[in-house]
UniProtKB/TrEMBL annotation:
Family the UniProt entry places it in: Belongs to the GMC oxidoreductase family.
Protein name as catalogued: Glucose-methanol-choline oxidoreductase C-terminal domain-containing protein
GO molecular function, one term: flavin adenine dinucleotide binding
Residue ranges of domain Glucose-methanol-choline oxidoreductase C-terminal in the record: 52-176
Biological classification of the source: Eukaryota, Metazoa, Ecdysozoa, Arthropoda, Hexapoda
InterPro entries assigned to the protein according to its UniProt record, in alphabetical order: FAD/NAD-bd_sf, GMC_OxRdtase, GMC_OxRtase_C
Domain of life: Eukaryota
SUPFAM superfamilies linked: FAD-linked reductases, C-terminal domain (SSF54373), FAD/NAD(P)-binding domain (SSF51905)
Pfam families (alphabetical): GMC_oxred_C
Length: 176
């Protein structure tokens, strides 16, 4: 249910340009959570929810192909998604605290997320608050566009998107 994305850098190793843009981070949040890490030696472990119960939607804003679509991910509309991801966070902390990682000087970042300081750090309530402030879709999971001939399928066996003429999905998202 959870995949762990390990990276030999922080999410702002480029000076914060991409993470600020991707997450639309306010200066207060960026300066508290990420700016102190710009020159630091870091690594990142991100727990990813692979089988969310919550689902969102995408719709066209207009007929103009240059206009961005309207995307509503509906993160965490099912309580189980929150619980599974909190368990993933706890596993990530345990990994960071193993002898092998500690030997290399690994220690978790214990800075509290602005907006969640009313909750004691490392409680379920704190992590739920932090997740609701800092969650995004990532690009690694596969199997997000089911292939088949049943009503739940997104593409047919020739990778053509049902209901959209001239569009195919040709990446790993169609893999089971």
């Amino acid at each position: 249910d959870v995949q762990f994305h390990f990276a030999p850098s922080s999410v702002n190793s480029d000076g914060g340009e991409q993470i600020r843009k991707i997450l639309n981070l306010r200066d207060r949040v960026y300066n508290t959570m990420y700016k102190p890490l710009v020159e630091a030696e870091t690594w990142t472990i991100l727990p990813l929810l692979l089988r969310p119960k919550s689902s969102g939607w995408v719709k066209l804003k207009s007929k103009n192909p240059l206009h961005y679509p309207v995307i509503e991910p509906n993160y965490f509309t099912h309580r189980e998604d929150i619980d599974v991801l909190i368990e993933g966070i706890r596993i990530a902390f345990n990994v960071s605290n193993t002898k092998a990682f500690r030997k290399r000087g690994s220690r978790p970042l214990l800075t509290q997320m602005p907006g969640c300081r009313k909750y004691p750090f490392d409680t379920d309530e704190y992590w739920e608050c932090a997740m609701r402030h800092f969650t995004f879709t990532i690009y690694h999971p596969t199997g997000t566009c089911k292939m088949g001939v049943d009503p739940d399928a997104v593409v047919d066996p020739r990778l053509r998107v049902y209901g959209v003429k001239g569009l195919r999905v040709i990446d790993a998202s169609i893999m089971p």
